[in-house]
Amino acid sequence: MSPAEPHHPVRADGIDARHRLLFAGLALFAEHGFEKTSVRALAKAAQVNLGAISYYFGDKEGLYRALFTDPSICGVPEDLVAFADPGRPLLEALRMFYVDFLAPLKRGDEVRMVMKLHFREMAEPTGAWAGAVDTEIRPQFEALLRLLVRELGMKRADLDLHRLALSIAGLGVHFFAFHDGVQTLSPSVLATPRAIDTLAERLAGYAVSMVEGERARRAAGRTED
After folding, report:
1. Do residues 211 and 151 make contact, with C-beta atoms less than 8 angstroms apart?
2. pTM over 0.70
């Protein structure tokens, strides 16, 4: 650190400085991308000294990757697959799935920055998204497949069950990917935490109908590769 650089005190437990770095990183990376965001700009925005980034995250890349996995940013539940516990009724399991899935929407404007960051990562990939898929998204998807296998009395998931699982997850993804559109067309749907919980309940009901439709299709002997 140069003599001219101001030193900002960091709390002994590191929580305050770490959180400030995460949210500064979210704003700057979402706006400018990974390559065009400097360590100095991150430290200045978070009001910490330069060494705090390496102390808490190792380097700029570590901070960037944390934005895709840290619960304070992405809202990942403690138990990613609890919704699929054996014996849990289908409607209850799917309601739990959507409650956890939609929880980040309760953070209001912050979700716009998260989505902007994710879209930028897709356009300018660094590999951070692939890591999040393996550690968070894939376990949830596989748990959803296990739930559907049990519900439909199958031995294993076939391609049609993958289609169904992706469609069920897609109901929730829509409210992130089309967040601004939802706010324009029907803002009350996401207006309050209670409204988002109601949305989760409704999506669970819609998803049950999708499962029943697949059950009926299979009973009629209509299967495809």
Report:
1. yes
2. yes
